[in-house]
Structure formats: C-alpha cells, structure tokens
Amino acid sequence: MKNLIDGFLHFKHHIFPREQHLFRQLGARQNPQALFITCADSRIVPTLITQSRPGDLFVCRTIGNQVPLHGIPGDGGVGSAVEYALEALDVRDIIVCGHSDCGAMKAVLYPEKTVALPTTKAWLKQAEAARSTVIGNYPDAADDVLLHVLTEENILAQIRNLTTHPSVAARLARGQLDLHGWFYHIHSGEITSYDKDRKRFRPLATGAPSADSRPQLQHFSRGDAA
After folding, report:
1. 182: which residues sit within 8 A by CB, 6+ positions away?
2. Which of 37-41, 74-78, 109-113 has the lowest mean pLDDT?
3. How many whole angstroms separate alpha carbon 184 and alpha carbon 65?
4. How do residues 182-215 score in pLDDT, each as one tens digit?
5. Which phi and psi angles does 188 have, rounded to 5°?
6. DSSP H or E stretch at residue 16
7. What is the 3-state composition of the chain as percent helix, strand, coil, each rounded to the nearest 5?
8. 71-82 burial: b if 16+ Cβ within 10 Å, else e
9. pLDDT per residue over 75-103, tens digit each?
C-alpha cells in the first residue's frame, strides 16, 4: 500500500497542479472519445498504451474482456456501461481489447484451471463459441498457437455479443457507431487490429508491416474461421 499512497502524494503535489484547468473542466462533465472494453489484467493500462488523457476513455474492465449477450442475468454491469456510454455520453467508437498471455483465455482452453473458481468459470461461458472455433479448426496446434488464436477469436466473439445490445444495434443501423477489435501484445507493445476486409488481425500503426503477428502456424490455416 505504501507505493500506492506515495504515488497519490506525487500526483497530488506534482501532477494535479500542472493539470488544474483540465481537472476543473472534468469536475463538471466528461466527453470521452471511445468506450474501451478490456481485461481486468493488471498489465493492461488503457490510458498508457493509447497515451490518452483523463476524460478521453470510458473504460469497462472484465475478466477476459467478456461482453455478455444482452439480457443475460448477472452480466457484471457491462450492459449498463455500454448503454451509458452510447446513450448518455454519445460515444461513437467501441474498442474490445484482448491481450497476450491472458489467464482467462488459458482457463477457457483448459477448463480444469477453473475448478476452484466457480464464479470465473460461469463468467467465461461467454467465450465458449470462441473455444469451439479454435478447438475445431486447430486440433493439432501447439499451446501457444491455440492461446493466440483463441484470444483473437474471443475478441471477435465479444464484438458479436455487443451487437445484441439494443443501443449498439440501433446506432450501427444508423451508421453512428464503429466497433473495433484490438489485440495488445504485452511483450512487444504492439497492437494488432481486426481487418474485416482481410479477415485477419493486422498492425494498428499506419505504415506498419502487414505480416501476420500470430505464432508460426506451420501447415495450419486460420482461413475464415473468424
């Protein structure tokens, strides 16, 4: 706790005074650019990896960046976050961001890991479709390949779940909302983004190489599984 308290004191005495005007504005209103749905993993800091300022992102964090289908009981507040972001804050972009080395995705691949975590096991049922896609298409793939592709498939599955929410569906129909699938690679700092036209994840940065960022698949082909 000492590190956290020391960090707050540094913020209070050194950072806050330089940004008083910004915080004075934020004290009365917020106008975020995007809803950022990501994992609760401590290594994922949305404002750091996007270099956003306070007030730029409306963040929703869940284990495994899960987005339950609309109307499912006990959705962890995700539905209300989505609704508020769109209807109250008029957000025009939603990002679903998964990440490498995700413990939740490991638990989805290997359900025995959740024997002592019944609540987590129930929550991760939202990723079952992604798991079925991966297991069915990569029966002989190595563990690191399975984990990587599952993480990608899970991002896409949660985006599909998002479209079942009335506020999302309505705005998509009116052309007032864009959905984005991002994969943050912790070890390299890279973000790959899903390209709907090419049906694959590609480097987010403009002008970056277009090579596939996944582990070597050898003779396996992801094809149109996504």
Report:
1. 95, 96, 97, 98, 155, 191, 192, 193, 194, 204
2. 74-78
3. 12
4. 999 999 999 999 999 999 999 987 544 444 455 4
5. -115, -15
6. none
7. 45, 15, 40
8. eeeebbebbebb
9. 779 999 999 999 999 999 999 999 999 99
Q: How far is CA 130 from CA 95, 151, 186, in A?
A: 18, 8, 21
Domains and CATH numbers, the chain: 1-30 (no CATH), 32-203 (3.40.1050.10)
The answer, yes or no, to whether residue 64 has pLDDT greater than 70, is yes
Q: Within a 13 Å sphere around the CA of 34, how many CA atoms are in the beta-carbon half?
A: 17
Q: Which amino acid is at 123?
A: W
The DSSP line for 162-212 is HTTSHHHHHHHHTT--EEEEEEEETTTTEEEEEETTTTEEEESSTT-----
Contact (CB, 8 A) for 37 and 97 = yes
Rounded to an integer, what distance in angstroms lies between the CA atom of residue 147 and that of residue 135?
A: 11
Distance CA 111, CA 131 (A): 11
Listed residue (205, 211, 175) closest to 190, CA to CA: 205
**Residue 125 pLDDT > 70:** yes
Nearest to 77 by CA among 91, 99, 61, 98: 61
